[in-house]
Specification:
Blueprint (H helix, E strand, L loop, with lengths): L1 H27 L3 H35 L5 H4 L2 H42 L2 E4 L2 E5 L10
Helix pairs in contact: 1-2, 1-4
Amino acid sequence: MISHYLNNAINNIEDLIKLTKEDIEDIKNARNDEIFKRTKIKDEIIVLFENQKQLLDSELLRIMNRNKDKELSEVLSENEKKSLEKLKTKLQELHSINKEYAKFVVVINEFYSSLFDKIFPTDIENYKKINPKSFSLLKVSA
């Protein structure tokens, strides 16, 4: 069962990596609709991964309780050890790709926030926006 849970978890992480790479390409090309479409899919994959991880944790705990006098590495097969290492590597890769994606998100957020502030300026007092200033772009003279 451990191999099954590990393989499913690895597949979930690989799917998230693929989708996040697509998000990065789409954010570079301002295809926001594509990113938003994938959000639900990514959320579902995350839930699947969390379930697999919980099942894996339970199975590992059960095995360790049956073999209290042994280390985990003594109980697992070579294939299971390799799969655990692969899972760790894939999680690190996902972490790295998510950091790259986050950089784009922060830059774009700053751009839109500054643009919004230029169009709809507000006064700031004690780090809170108060009393919107007059909207010079929206004034109409008759």
